[in-house]
Design a protein that fits this description.
This protein is mostly helical and 662 residues long. Helix content is 65%, strand content 1%.
Length: 662
């Protein structure tokens, strides 16, 4: 089957203005081509090869022809001859769908161990964002040129949540060649067991000790029973299995794991095994907000025995207890890449400043803060204030030229992406947009092209692509673009009516939905403010919104009315604390009510030690967003520290908890 590129048609549409008209009007005046595309989408989801083949000829000349052709070819990829696959790649050369199909083909070639074809095709793969494909590529490099790829292979493998063929294959190959050692494999098993991923743990053990890998399932099912049947562990493998059991016990009861380690197993394990196990116990205790978490971490004799994840949790435990020396030692042991993360640069600087007045410490702290200080994010803003500067709106970059705007407008990948989104194929459109801006060329588009692409998305009111694209600029910041304010009249009016900061509302919407009005989460939350159906119904009754039906939740004004009302009720219940109210909006009010118990903490520490990663990141992003929106709305200097305040147990003289709050 032959395919005809349609790039010239796309450019012709743009130059004549037909693209703009069609992108906005096709929902009112759908054409047959759109219907065929949507029908093919359904056929692709069902895996209906015959229907896809029958419909494909009707898409000739349609702006989304490459997508339709990809769907048809993808369902036949396992049986299509190489010549036909290459025909597709040539027909759509330079497009996202060329590289998308090449990605799929490379995975297939790797699984089939067709290394000659894989090696020939991989250099043409532009995205380079598929971990399994990269693992296959590392295997070919190790086989073809004897390259030392062990460190990259381990990094990719350790980051996998589940088992895949590519990374397992390269690790097995490197282990056979003695480039990957037993400890590397056991560490993967430990990481997997800590993450409650028994299949991944068993796969790692199966490479190093295949006769013992079945023990992993027994350990995962009942680690206490496993340990009590074994009094001593003589071999390295038996010791490591005991470590896996202690890790599994720690997930449910860190104190029980600590008792077993102290009384029975510490003397039998190696120093490295003890250090790792104590750190996992400390991590689990920190996630449960136990006061003794830092005590468990203090039993680690050598921080360099830990991976970055355990070191991060050691920092969090130390922050809750103001143990700045532990913060300093843990951040010092992190890998260079992790240490450069703004979070750990900031806390290392704070530890240096807290440890004493020595000039060398102050100089390092100032240097770390200066390197990250900006308005970009949570820790960048905190660093700015630590240096005595307020958060303000950066000066806008030079306006985009007509030529820059035209180049974005005529970009075929951006056009196809916007068309797909307008047609209701949002995930397909988002993927092509991201490929065009981020992956088509190494490092992605330069800043000015990103600004132009973001501007195009803003003009089309595709706010999520506008924001995400503008956020990728490295040297220039356009805050009006990064922090748009759609529906300003509705949001500001509603916020003022109920005495809520409109900057806070905008900061939350930006994080919840990126202003996509029909956004729907995996748990069923809907609309701009991502309100759950039950919460919407409860809130509508609470505020006297008569006649409310669940179908109204995607109506922009109704969604903002209910979302802001609920946010105000949550904020009042948490005594005006934005960090706690934000956590409650994301995770429900009962969890932050529990998380606030313990010592009174500066809210930045409290936010960093929230047990749930999603909520932890959410709180930090919403508060940083809010501060930037406040600077835009008021044009006055802002303070994120003032919004954070402190977090601690509820004051007894404050009104009772609103137990009805969902």
């Amino acid at each position: 089957m032959k395919f005809t590129p349609i790039l010239t048609l796309v450019c012709a549409w743009t130059m004549t203005g037909l693209w703009n008209a069609h992108a906005h009007a096709h929902t009112q005046t759908p054409n047959r081509g759109d219907d065929v595309i949507l029908e093919m989408h359904q056929a692709f989801r069902k895996g209906d090869k015959n229907r896809l083949s029958a419909l494909l000829p009707q898409t000739r000349g349609h702006v989304l022809e490459p997508l339709a052709a990809y769907w048809e070819m993808r369902t036949r990829l396992d049986t299509a001859p190489d010549a036909e696959i290459r025909g597709f790649l040539n027909a759509y050369a330079g497009s996202y769908y060329e590289d998308r199909l090449r990605n799929d083909w490379l995975l297939q070639l790797g699984k089939r161990r067709q290394w000659a074809t894989f090696t020939a095709e991989y250099p043409r793969f532009r995205m380079r964002d598929d971990r399994e494909v990269r693992c296959y590529a590392l295997a070919t490099e190790a086989m073809n040129s004897k390259a030392d790829v062990a460190e990259e292979a381990k990094r990719l493998w350790y980051s996998l949540r589940e088992v895949d063929d590519g990374c397992t294959y390269v690790i097995d190959h490197l282990h056979s060649g003695k480039q990957i050692h037993g400890l590397d494999l056991w560490r993967k098993a430990r990481i997997a067991m800590d993450a409650n991923r028994p299949r991944a743990a068993q796969a790692a053990v199966d490479i190093e000790a295949p006769r013992l890998s079945e023990q992993v399932a027994l350990i995962h099912a009942d680690p206490v029973k496993y340990l009590y049947k074994r009094i001593v562990a003589v071999t390295i493998s038996r010791k490591e299995l005991a470590v896996l059991a202690l890790i599994r016990i720690a997930a449910k009861n860190p104190d029980e794991a600590a008792d077993l380690l102290s009384r029975r197993w510490a003397l039998q394990l190696s120093a490295e095994e003890r250090n790792w196990t104590w750190a996992v116990i400390g991590k689990q205790a920190t996630q449960k907000l136990q006061d003794n978490a830092s005590t468990y971490f203090s039993k680690v004799q050598k921080d360099s025995d830990l991976n970055d994840d355990l070191l991060i949790w050691k920092v969090r435990a130390a922050l809750r207890q103001s143990q700045w020396q532990q913060v300093l030692s843990a951040t010092g042991a992190m890998s260079a890449a992790t240490r450069q993360d703004p979070a750990w640069s900031y806390w290392r600087a704070r530890a240096l400043l807290a440890m004493g007045p020595h000039d060398a410490q102050r100089h390092e702290a100032q240097s770390l803060l200066t390197q990250i200080a900006s308005v970009r994010g949570f820790y960048e803003q905190l660093a700015l204030e630590e240096l005595g500067q307020a958060i303000t709106v950066p000066e806008r970059p030079a306006p985009l030229t007509p030529q820059e705007k035209t180049a974005a407008l005529q970009h075929p990948g951006l056009q196809r992406a916007l068309y797909a989104i307008a047609l209701g194929l949002r995930s397909e459109g988002n993927r092509e947009w991201n490929y065009s801006t981020n992956l088509h060329t190494p490092g992605g588009m330069p800043d000015r092209e990103l600004l132009a692409a973001a501007d195009l998305a803003c003009q089309r009111q595709v706010w999520d692509r506008c924001i995400n694209t503008s956020e990728r600029t490295k040297e220039v910041l356009d805050h009006e673009q990064r922090f748009p304010m759609p529906l300003r009249e509705i949001v500001v009016r509603r916020a003022h009516d109920i005495r809520l900061d409109p900057a806070y509302v905008y900061g939350l919407i930006r994080q919840e939905s990126r202003f996509v009005t029909d956004a729907r989460s995996h748990v069923g939350a809907s609309g701009l403010m991502q309100v759950m159906p039950a919460t919407a119904k409860w809130t509508a009754q609470k505020i006297g919104l008569s006649g409310f039906t669940p179908q109204q939740i995607n109506d922009r004004e109704v969604n903002v009315t209910i979302g802001t009302a609920y946010l105000k009720l949550v904020l009042d219940d948490f005594e005006g604390s934005m960090p706690m109210a934000t956590a409650a909006y994301n995770a429900g009010p009962s969890r932050p009510r529990s998380w606030r118990n313990g010592p009174v903490l500066e809210a930045a520490i409290w936010a960093e030690t929230i047990p749930f990663q999603e909520t932890r990141d959410y709180v930090k992003k919403v508060l940083a967003n809010t501060t930037n929106y406040a600077a835009l709305l008021t044009r006055q200097p802002q303070s994120i520290k003032a919004r954070l305040g402190t977090v601690g147990p509820r004051q007894s003289n404050i009104a009772e908890v609103n137990k009805d709050l969902p």
